[in-house]
Write a structure and sequence with these properties.
- The chain is of the alpha+beta class and 171 residues long.
- It has a single domain, classed as PAS domain (Beta-Lactamase), CATH 3.30.450.20.
- Helix content is 27%, strand content 30%.
- The chain has four helices and six strands; from the N terminus they run βαββααβββα.
- Strands 1-4-5-6-2-3 form a six-stranded antiparallel beta sheet, with helices on both faces.
- Strand 2 and strand 3 form a beta hairpin.
- It is globular.
- The N and C termini lie close together (8 Å).
């Protein structure tokens, strides 16, 4: 069993320095627009060691869905699944998929960057592990959010998460 709970966090750049780099890049691109265009994002502006912890979704409206255009290798290593080109709803365990979908939906609706703390309880003892996720909206047309970039910092509990998801039953 895997239990996932999340809450929104106030952004503290000193507490989340790698997320702050991503947010600063986003803010520098946005200017006075709703959000920057996805084609303006420069992967070279973020530390290379955090790229495996990133993902990018395309926003679909009918029906509402989020399809991964990029799924970082750290996610593959922990969750044991490749989701590039696939829906967030295909993520396993299902509790993680629901939490991530809701966070993308909140980011889409707010049209602004959002920071979330995810508490994931998994493994034989359901010990809580922390993941902090920054979600940054992008817009190709300046009218609605069309992509969302996520930096999910799981480095603190990476080994425990990896071990927990290795032994989890499918749900």
């Amino acid at each position: 069993m895997v239990d996932v709970n999340y809450k929104r966090l106030e952004f503290d750049k000193s507490r989340y320095p790698d997320a702050a780099i991503c947010l600063d890049c986003w803010e520098g691109l946005r200017g006075d627009r709703l959000a920057p265009r996805w084609d303006e994002f420069d992967w070279l502006q973020v530390p290379p060691e955090i790229i495996p912890h990133m993902g990018v979704v395309d926003v679909h409206l009918d029906p509402p869905d989020f399809i991964y255009r990029f799924w970082g290798s750290a996610h593959v290593e922990v969750l044991k699944q490749e989701l590039t080109g696939r829906s967030v709803t295909e993520m396993r365990p299902e509790s993680e998929a629901k939490s991530v979908f809701q966070q993308y939906a909140e980011t889409y609706e707010s049209c602004r960057p959002m920071l979330f703390e995810n508490i994931i309880s998994a493994g034989p003892h359901l010990l809580p592990m922390e993941e902090v996720s920054l979600r940054l909206p992008f817009s190709v047309n300046g009218e609605r959010i069309t992509q969302i970039l996520a930096f999910s910092d799981i480095r603190r509990d990476f080994k425990r998460l990896k071990e927990s998801f290795l032994s989890r039953p499918s749900r």
